[in-house]
Amino acid sequence: MAGPPCRSPAAWRPLVACLLVAAFLPPLSGAAKVVTHLPGFDGPLPFYLETGYVGLDDEAGTELFYYFVESERNPSQDPLVLWLTGGPGCSGFSGFVYEVGPLNYKVVPYNGSLPQLISNPYSWTKLASFLFLDTPVGSGFSYARDPKGFYVGDSISCLQVVTFLKKWFNDHPQYLPNHFYLGGSSYAAKMIPVITTHVLEEIEARRQPLINLKGYIVGNPVTGSDIDMNFRVPYAHGVGIISDQLYEAAMKNCNGDYVNPANKICGQVLQTIHDLIYEVSIDDILEDKCVLIAPKPTNGDSGSRILSEEHIQLRNPPPEPGIECFTYMYYLSYFWANYNGTRDALGIREGTVDEWIRCNRTMHYTPDIPSSIGYHHIVNNKGYRVLVYSGDHDLSVPFLGTHSWIRSFEYPVVDDWRAWHVDGQTAGFTIRYNNLTFATLKGAGHTAVEYVRKQGFAMAQRWIDELPL
């Protein structure tokens, strides 16, 4: 008898107990659910939402959970986009409710009641249908029945996404004619060109189902190579975080390598630079560095207590940031997703995930692809459309590094560096090389479209509709 799973092979979940639970649970049934209402949202959802699981293998019993939102514009003609979230280990729900999806949280101080959801007027689902996926296994509501199934890395995870796509399209053949794109930001953007390469191999081998691939979108993309971090030093100098003297000392003693110091003086200079960089928020140098508050009791006798019959057991609520912090909206998702009514509405299988965490940092994950830059080159050389965008206030993956590896391909420039605009104001700067468009989003940090939703929507609309930015 196949039973659901252990959430994670982490030490706090004893293996023996996990196997005993799995042995007595009934077989799984039912893969997809149409969701018309969500707790915390006022009224029926104004868009089509389907949630479900796709099983990847029988041996480990790996099941990936997804959220599918049909385009609110013209679903029969609009593209379909698979959107992945960074981490690794962050739930696809982040894309659904923070980045490009149809809902946002109403950001008000949490008082123990259910966080409220509101419509996102700049949802990219007004332009295309979106699949948000909990991957790798162990993130969000995805799970494996065999604890060994949680031991994954870049390579396995990418292949699992390809398997997911093939099975999902077999169950949803009506979307096969639609143009298909992959998308994601941060660490997920490292995976996107790799997954795209695997999809290309499936297409070139004429394996069914034949996906109508057109390209991909990546934001503030991690590559895995040293280039991501190497450009933190010149960027920090350019925005005034480090002095001319420090930058000159780094250039003189580090020979262009600011990640692996080759001598003592270089190491000392980089340590000083490192200390100065961490005086600011590296995800957005304009944001405050938020002080985290220890979690408040969730079952005390105050007016804001959580009722046990409404919520699952909350073992590890995240530290509470200040309400003024950009990350406060992330804090709210923990309580919303661990509400029993939410689990019921989404169709979460009972006994599979005992506690939802937005970004699972306990995963046994191996970053075994050292760099994705070569995969970008492969896809671009085959003529597929690519959009690469960066928040220009991101110090985690500075746009300087991203533009550097793009320039290393030596593609011909077809539209030179210029400003692009929204409502008559500069929204960023852009350059187009053959089929690759690079754009910055002015004033945005890491996961850039969370910071400037209106400008991000305009960028996506123009690119998806194949118009110049």
Summarize the SSE layout with pairings:
Blueprint: H1 15-24, E1 32-35, E2 49-55, E3 62-69, E4 80-84, H2 93-99, E5 103-105, E6 117-119, E7 129-133, E8 143-144, E9 152-153, H3 154-171, E10 180-185, H4 187-204, E11 213-219, H5 227-230, H6 232-238, H7 244-254, H8 264-277, H9 328-337, H10 340-346, E12 365-366, H11 373-381, E13 385-391, H12 399-407, E14 413-422, E15 425-433, E16 436-441, H13 453-464
Parallel strand pairs: 4-7, 4-10, 9-12, 10-11, 11-13, 13-16
Antiparallel strand pairs: 1-2, 2-3, 3-7, 3-8, 5-6, 14-15, 15-16
Describe it.
- The structure is a single chain.
- With 469 residues, the chain is an alpha/beta fold.
- The chain has one domain (1-227, 327-469): Rossmann fold.
- 29% of the residues lie in helices and 18% in strands.
- The protein is built from 13 helices and 16 strands.
- Strands 1, 2, 3, 4, 7, 8, 10, 11, 13, 14, 15 and 16 form a 12-stranded mixed beta sheet that branches. It has a two-stranded antiparallel sheet with strand order 5-6. The protein has a two-stranded parallel ribbon with strand order 9-12.
- α4 (187-204) crosses α11.
- Residues 1-30 and 294-309 have low confidence and may be disordered.
